[in-house]
Amino acid sequence: MSSLASVVLSLLALVLAAVALVLATIANRRWATRRRGTGAGDRDASATAGEAPSAAPALLALQGQLAAVHPELTDLREGLDRQAGAVSRLEGEVQQLASALAALGSSMAATRAGVEALTSTPPRDPTALRHVALVRYDAFADLGGRLSYSVALLDDTASGLVLTTLAAKAEVRTYVRTVSGGSGDAVLTAEEQRAVEAAMAADGHGSDAEPEAGQGHPSGAELGRPVAPSSGSGSRS
Fold this sequence. Notes:
alpha+beta; 4 helices; 52% helix
C-alpha cells in the first residue's frame, strides 16, 4: 500500500507540474503576442523567440519523469488485474459453498421429515381388532389338558367377536359370537366373558388369561349354535 501511495503521489506531482508548465507556456505566448501587437519591433520578437525555447528543457524533463513512472504504473495495473482475478475466483468458490450449504440444508430437512414420519405414531383406528385375549380351560369333566379355549377379538369400543372351541372325546365344536360394547348377541359363558375382559385390559398387546382354579365349562350346549362341527377330531386321554 505504501508503494502504491508513493506512485500515486508521484503521478499527481507530475500532472501538476505539466499543468503549470502548460499554463506558463500559454502565458508566455500571450505576452509575446501582446508585445508584437503593440509594435515593439524585432527586438521584442527576438526576445520572445528567445524565451519560448526556455520551456523545451522542462518539457523534456517532464517526459523523462513520465517515462520513468510508466513501468511502475504498468506493474501496478497488472497487480490490480491479478487481484481482481483472485477476487473473482474467491466469489465463485463462495457461491459454490453457499449452494452446497443450501443443498445440505435441504437434505437435512428431508432426513428430519423422514425420521419424524418413522417415529411418529399413526392415527389409531378405533375399529381395528387390536384387543386380543385367549382363555383355555377344560370344557368337560372327563377330558383334561385344557384343550378347549375362547378367543376374544375386540376393537376400542369392546366390539368384535368371541371364538370358542370345545374339545370333547368324540368331537370338537367351534362357535362364534358377536360382541358389541362388551356384551354378546347371546349370554356369554364365564370363559367368554373372562376373555372379553382380558382383551380390553390387554390394551392391544394380547393376553393369555388363565381360568380360576376349579372353573370349567359344564356343558358345551350352553355356547349356542355350532359353526364348524368336526366329529371324531377330539383328543382322547
